[in-house]
Design goal:
By secondary structure, this protein is mainly alpha-helical. It has seven helices and three strands. The protein has a three-stranded parallel sheet with strand order 1-2-3. The protein is globular.
């Protein structure tokens, strides 16, 4: 957030979108509202499903798998839905046609407040990509 506080006053055109790594193990819960309050879209870019060697661990997380089972959805769908309910744009990448289709099926279910809180509690501050 310090970078944004230093950067934004120096520009005359506000960015339309800021892309940041966001997933249940790295949530940036202090930064997201700061960005959104300025009318800037937050995109959970890069690794919404954990990324680079961490996807299997995140998709297999017991909290996420339990919530997924309760909704008859996959762990990936639950994570993507969690992002959407936080107001975060996600664009997951895949070359697998089944996964691409699955990633579009996020709008016929909703996570309740308890489920959102349980996923929010998974935050470890664990960044998986360093720029």
């Amino acid at each position: 957030m310090d970078e944004l506080e230093a950067f934004l006053p120096q520009i005359s055109i506000t960015p339309a979108l800021i892309q940041n790594e966001i997933h249940p193990y790295y949530q940036e819960n202090d930064v997201i509202p700061y960005i959104q309050e300025r009318g800037i879209v937050v995109q959970g870019g890069g690794y919404p499903l954990g990324g680079r060697g961490h996807t299997a661990e995140l998709l297999g997380d017991p909290v996420i798998t339990e919530i997924a089972a309760a909704h008859g959805k996959t762990s990936a769908q639950v994570i993507l839905r969690w992002n959407l309910q936080k107001g975060i744009v996600v664009i997951p990448g895949s070359s697998n046609p089944e996964h691409i289709q699955e990633n579009t099926e996020l709008f016929h279910f909703e996570l309740d407040a308890d489920e959102m809180a349980r996923i929010n509690a998974l935050d470890r501050g664990e960044k998986h990509d360093w720029y």
